[in-house]
Design a protein that fits this description.
This protein has about 140 residues and is of the alpha+beta class. About 35% of the residues lie in helices and about 30% in strands. The chain contains 4 helices and 6 strands. The protein has a 6-stranded mixed beta sheet with strand order 1-2-3-4-5-6. α4 links the parallel β5 and β6.
Length: about 140
């Protein structure tokens, strides 16, 4: 179920799931974050479309969170469940916040929502399954 939420961090930020219309905006955001953080690893629109938006284990409405201010994507978190063995679930949380929007609580809110989703995924695998979460930026 897709739900829009007001971000607790900023009264003008709305958190909503990412959609198939967001790869270009996400690319701008990821590149800005990497440049600000000195990360030289390149990323392309095709990379995002294939590796993230094309991942069959991802449900955009449930596994992604985008922070929007006005019409601009200023942050995101993406919960990726990979290699789901029976005893342990490995989850990766990728995310970024626009360098100009950092230290305003947006990342905290996105991580809070991603953590809740990660726990839902693990719980859905039964009581004897544990989870490991890895953060990526």
């Amino acid at each position: 179920m897709s739900v829009q939420r007001r971000s607790a961090a900023r009264t003008d930020a709305i958190v909503r799931p990412l959609s198939e219309a967001d790869p270009a905006a996400l690319l701008v955001l990821v590149r800005a974050g990497r440049a600000a953080d000195g990360v030289a690893e390149p990323i392309s629109l095709d990379d995002l479309r294939h590796n993230w938006f094309g991942d069959p284990t991802t449900h955009l409405a449930e596994d992604t969170f985008g922070a929007i201010v006005g019409e601009r994507l200023v942050g995101f978190c993406w919960v990726l469940a990979k290699d789901l063995p029976e005893a342990i679930v490995k989850l990766f949380i990728a995310g970024e916040v626009d360098p100009d929007e950092r230290r305003r609580g947006i990342g905290d809110e996105l991580l809070r929502l991603a953590d809740l989703r990660a726990n839902e995924i693990v719980s859905g695998h039964g009581p004897n399954v544990s989870g490991e979460v890895f953060l990526e930026s």
